[in-house]
Amino acid sequence: MEDVAELAGVSAMTVSRVLNTPEKVRPETRERVLAAVRKLDYHPNSAARVLVTGRSGVLGVVCFDTTLYGPASTLYGIEQAARENDYLVSIASLPSLNRRSIAEGVDRLRSQSVDGVIVVAPHESAAEGLRHLPAGLPVVDVGGGGDLPVPAAAVDQHAGAVRATRHLLGLGHRTVWHLAGPPNWIDSSGRAAGWRSVLEAEGREAPEPLAGDWSAQSGYEIGRRMAGERELTAVFAGNDHMAMGLVRALREAGRRVPEDVSVVGFDDVPESAYVWPPLTTVRQNFGEVGRRAFRLLLDRIAGAEGPVRRLVEPELVVRGSTGSRP
User: What is the 3-state secondary structure (H, E, C) of the chain?
Assistant: First the structure.
């Protein structure tokens, strides 16, 4: 830093201000310092920063199964929010979510002197792990249930399912079948609860839901069984990939979509607008989830206490896979 200061003709304190609070430095001075930084290829020493400020500028993220669209998009939203605020992100990807694996992931991140940790835990087995984290460590949950002892940010899964089910009933369908996700996923439970609440409120029969594993293959296999149900005219699928598999199975069985059966998915994955027919779905704003989780963690780092839950409202996107009851 002293070398940069000498080359730029300023004090070391000014160099520090440019690197940490650039808005407090005059533009011409800031550019002169940044030019010296580039010329000398200077990089701040993160270990020294921790010793001086007590902060590393690094956030930890514990996550699970980022091969799935939802967790991967949530992770991207967190990274984007951190980058916009000049934070780095260190990731601990876990093969499973339970008390032991979460503790190990958090310990690995703490060894890197992270300022706090965001746990992307959309799995019911993660709740126990979140209740036994080290005291004093700022932690925020993303996608977990509503009874956790830490602040949380999530999409309102219940509200999204309510919108999807009401849309189908509004098209004249007598009831709506549900192709659910795995029962041990919090997202799946929330969507199933929202679907059932609408049918019960409207006095409609709720067919027994069939559970897939989020994959298009499981949607296809269950769809082959559903196709034989002649009373079936509308299906709310737990995610878009299962919905796509379902649509193929229905068409192979001679059931047209949406003329004979209407289908709604969940997530709004990029390809959902380009399959045939284009898929009606529930869009989740993962970027906003990431921003809210990041702000909650900064509040926690600053000393805020108590569990706070921030829900992001989903949006129904109507396309060509839904129509009036035949």
Answer: CHHHHHHHCCCHHHHHHHHHCHHHCCHHHHHHHHHHHHHHCCCCCHHHHHHHHCCCCEEEEEEECCCCHHHHHHHHHHHHHHHHCCCEEEEEEECCCCHHHHHHHHHHHHCCCCCEEEEECCECCHHHHHCCCCCCCCEEEECCCCCCCCCEEEECHHHHHHHHHHHHHHCCCCCCEEEECCCCEHHHHHHHHHHHHHHHHCCCCCCCCEECCCCHHHHHHHHHHHCCCCCCCEEEECCHHHHHHHHHHHHHCCCCCCCCCEEECCECCHHHHCCCCCCEEEECCHHHHHHHHHHHHHHHHCCCCCCCEEEECCEEECCCCCCCCC
pLDDT tens for each residue of 141-196: 898 766 777 889 999 999 999 999 999 999 999 999 999 999 888 899 999 999 99
